[in-house]
Amino acid sequence: MAGADPEKLIAKADKLTKLTLTRWSADWRNATQYYEQAATAYRFAKKHEKAKVTPWDAAKHMESAAALAVELSIWNEVADFYRRASELYNECGRSQPASDALAKGARALEDGKPEVAITMYTDACLLLEEDGKENMVFDIYRAITSLYIKLEKYTDAATFLLRWAVAANKCNALHSQCKAYLSAIIVYLYAHDFKEAEKCYNDCCQIDTFLSSDQSHCASKLLSAYREADIEEIQRVAKSSTVSNLDHVIIRLARKLPTGEVIAMEINSVEHGEALDEDDLT
């Protein structure tokens, strides 16, 4: 490889990606191998700038191949090509395009291979988090939360919302942090897990930023309404402006509250004669 001519390797790669009368489809896999060999040859020749550019070009070609695979609905290749593009961008020291490539693949796979999409979204987050770019990850957090909810994996969705809150805190996006906490509490309530919602609220209130926020007051009212089985109050709070400023997927869940368990609690209290006695101070 030390004696290989990188320019000739690039020419071979370019040739494989161009369509002709006799070549109706691009050979992206072999082209990428030539680009990578050219990068290695440039490094041997101590032409480091060109060595960096070549993987970048290869990554672009991998993304083009992935987009074509999406059009042809070849889903396994979609994941492979976008992952390889991400690896090549990362090799160039560019975490953002590396993350973007994985996110593009995840979006393409949401319907056909949702579990693969979740893994790719998660890896896309990690790339930016590890590079200290939490402020660039919000759209990916939003996408993976929506996908978890679509799959009815509510505990996973709430967990990721809490992770979003931590990232928001790191980049001083305090309003986003509080919104993520309230969203997690709403997801737990929608999943019929009042105890976990209450625990989440108590944990979040250890953070001063949340404790004094509109989102905290809203969560407190919502939980109180649940304790009292006050359906009208739950619905009123769920339609409040604070909830209306959350992401659409969370608003849709909130609008469907309360859950069946609240109605059951009201029925049980009547059946067992447990109505509140205002004269009983014990």
UniProtKB/TrEMBL annotation:
GO terms for biological process: intracellular protein transport; vesicle-mediated transport. Pfam families: SNAP. Signal peptide: none annotated. Belongs to the SNAP family. It is a peripheral membrane protein. This is Gamma-soluble NSF attachment protein. The keyword Ligase does not apply. GO terms for molecular function: soluble NSF attachment protein activity; syntaxin binding. It comes from the Eukaryota. Its main location: membrane. Transmembrane segments: none annotated. It comes from Lactuca virosa. InterPro entries: NSF_attach (IPR000744), TPR-like_helical_dom_sf (IPR011990). GO terms for cellular component: SNARE complex; vacuolar membrane. Gene3D superfamilies: Tetratricopeptide repeat domain. It is found in: Membrane. Keywords: ER-Golgi transport, Membrane, Protein transport, Transport.
